[in-house]
């Protein structure tokens, strides 16, 4: 079955210290930075820094088994990484659904077409579409942009920055064009999520941001978002720990 996603408005905002850039057409304002020229990273292989003990791979580095694309044919596997093709707006989501979990993954922003740049994004508290049901835009989820820690709230009736629910902990200094390791700790029961970033992968992470709204919490897929066409991002070493034994950000430990 082919799923399609509705198109929503383009996200635009100015972040201090960053150059301004026009983002794709037809979106609403967001906290994402903008720039005047396309960004491009240098070719590099996926990181080989070991994952913490107790993690189970969601991505095997060879196939898209366990994932579904909405719409289809937007992502491929290349050199051990999950790679977006830059075709357009959409998501790739786990087939599994999770309530309380920790996800760790490596991410780098590879390139963007001129005037199309936008940070890489991940989604939690997603609404899993039923069979033959039209999915909500971005699965009606809550979003973190990585590794910067910017955010958006796609829940029905919101589609805004959700600033009353997000807390900035530390300004990320990670270079999006280089590999970062991201840890996302999610609890559907409390409606809470915490975000930490390490650069390079394997270094001690720094907590970047938090989200908290008990009304938002729900069991659902973990998803990766392609905000608009013209973007190429790479993800590697994607792994999960369900019902974590330690309710803390473990990548912050030295």
Describe this structure in words.
- The protein is mostly beta strands and 254 residues long.
- Helix content is 0%, strand content 34%.
- The protein is built from no helices and 15 strands.
- The strands form two sheets. Strands 1, 3, 4, 6, 10, 11, 12, 13 and 15 form a nine-stranded antiparallel β-sheet that branches.
- β12 and β13 form a beta hairpin.
- The protein is globular.
- The termini are far apart.
- The relative contact order is 0.25.
Characterize this entry briefly.
This protein is mainly β. The chain contains no helices and 15 strands.
Number of helices: 0
Give the low-confidence spans: 4-31, 33-37
The topology string of helices and strands comes to EEEEEEEEEEEEEEE
In whole angstroms, the N-to-C terminal distance is: 46 Å
Give the fraction of residues assigned to helices. Answer: under 10%
Query: Biggest β-sheet: count, sense, barrel?
Result: 9 strands, antiparallel
The pLDDT mean sits at: 88
E-strand count: 15
- Range of strand content: 25-35%
What is the assembly state of the chains in this entry? single chain
Computed over alpha carbons, the radius of gyration is: 16 Å
Give the helix/strand class. mainly beta
Q: What global shape is seen?
A: globular
């Amino acid at each position: 079955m082919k799923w399609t996603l509705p198109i929503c408005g383009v996200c635009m905002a100015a972040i201090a210290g960053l150059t301004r850039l026009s983002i794709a057409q037809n979106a609403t304002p967001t906290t994402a930075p903008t720039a005047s020229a396309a960004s491009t990273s240098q070719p590099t292989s996926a990181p080989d820094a070991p994952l913490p003990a107790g993690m189970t791979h969601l991505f095997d580095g060879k196939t898209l088994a366990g994932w579904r694309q909405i719409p289809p044919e937007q992502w491929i596997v290349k050199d051990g990484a999950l790679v977006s093709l830059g075709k357009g707006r959409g998501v790739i989501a786990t087939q599994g659904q999770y309530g309380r979990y920790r996800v760790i993954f490596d991410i780098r922003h590879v390139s963007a077409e001129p005037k199309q740049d936008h940070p890489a994004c991940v989604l939690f508290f997603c609404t899993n579409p039923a069979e033959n049901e039209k999915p909500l835009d971005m699965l009606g989820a809550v979003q973190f942009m990585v590794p910067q820690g910017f955010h958006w709230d796609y829940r029905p009736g919101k589609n805004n920055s959700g600033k009353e629910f997000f807390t900035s902990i530390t300004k990320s200094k990670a270079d999006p064009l280089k590999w970062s390791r991201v840890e996302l700790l999610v609890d559907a029961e409390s409606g809470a999520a915490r975000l930490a970033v390490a650069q390079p992968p394997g270094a001690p992470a720094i907590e970047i941001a938090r989200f908290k709204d008990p009304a938002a919490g729900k069991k659902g897929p973990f998803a990766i978002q392609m905000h608009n066409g013209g973007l190429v991002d790479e993800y590697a070493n994607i792994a999960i720990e369900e019902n974590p034994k330690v309710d803390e950000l473990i990548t912050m430990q030295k």
